[in-house]
Amino acid sequence: MKNSITSNFPLLASNQKNIQMKNKIIIALILGNLALTSCSNKLAPIRKDAVKPTIVTQALPHDTDDPAIWINPADATKSIIIGTDKDTDGGLYAFDLNGKIIAKSEVLKRPNNVDIAYGLLIDGKKVDVAVTTERENNRIRIFSLPDLKPIDNGGIAVFDGELERDPMGIALYTRSSDNAIFAIVGRKSGPSETYLWQYQLTDAGNGKARANVVRKFGKYSGKKEIEAIAVDNELGVLYYCDEQFGIRKYKADPALNDNSELALFGQKNFKADNEGIAIYKTTATTGYILVSNQQANTFMVYPREGANGNANEYPLLAEIPTSTIECDGADVTALNLGGAFQKGMFVAMSNGMTFHFYNWEDFQNRIDSAKK
Fold first, then answer.
1. pLDDT (mean) for 230-243
2. What does the DSSP assignment read for 327-353?
3. What is the rounded distance in angstroms from the CA atom of residue 35 to the CA atom of residue 40?
4. What number is the average pLDDT over the span 326-355?
5. Dihedral angle, C-alpha 63, 64, 65, 69, nearest 10 °
6. Dihedral angle computed from the Cα positions of residues 36, 37, 41 and 44, in that order, rounded to the nearest 10 degrees
7. pTM for the whole thing?
8. How far apart are CA 216 and CA 239, in angstroms?
9. Confidence label for 371 from pLDDT (cuts 50, 70 and 90)
10. 121 has which bridge partners?
């Protein structure tokens, strides 16, 4: 009986060389089919009941990865979204609230994640900043906002002296007691302890910023990687996704000298990777933690304040299907941005080189329905 794969080939010459070549082609086809099958089994289709975005941004040249929302202090309706284009020839891009590209940073070598902080003192002036990891150069980059101008003397090396560097995830923490700003940086792989390094951002003079390591902490399962990190400034805690293992919680202030893990949750809720994290704040202490269920194209929702009187207990409140495909990164704000975003905006990266802007009310309706 003819093999169903080989029957698609013309008859080859009978010499040994051609037979070997034919076998190699057959093996390549089989392996390719297995890979496609594995991929299709892993990635879920967009659900019919998925929340639809209000805006889909202009496509970037290469590969979107992570967004951050900058709130314009003078007029919130003129806020912008900063997003990474993850490539050797990538960069940071700024979008207006209609999803139009309005600015771009200088070229960066594979920027992965980005976060924003307000009021970094530079030469006695408060400067809002976007900080991103530049993976291929093993450094972080600091840009002023909203103009996306570099203020870091070409970049700041991270994980110095380590064999495993490759910075990926980043989150910024602003300490309420003195407004000091810190960058918490994750990497592609690392040790089972001290996986994250925390840097304090300070004034280097001449209009530039610098960063000094002040803390090394954080457990790692070794299963995949740690990229998604988010900080809750008001509650003074941070969360990060130990992919395919769970979501970990720690105190954010390095001065506390407390590197104990506060919580580990979400271990049974995800199809494969637990990824981008966003924190929606209904009050100073309440709200929701949203985490991308990447291969299911949904977001898992947990109570920001915890449950049953325990700030470190995180039951699943809802699973929200979205139109984003394999979302790596997300951000959210509860502030009124005008137009369709009067209750806030949820922003998520999607395959297809775009970011999706959602009306928060659509998310809130799903959460409320799940509670009933």
1. 97
2. ---EEEE-S--SGGGTT-EEEEEETTT
3. 9
4. 96
5. 160
6. 40
7. 0.87
8. 15
9. confident
10. 126
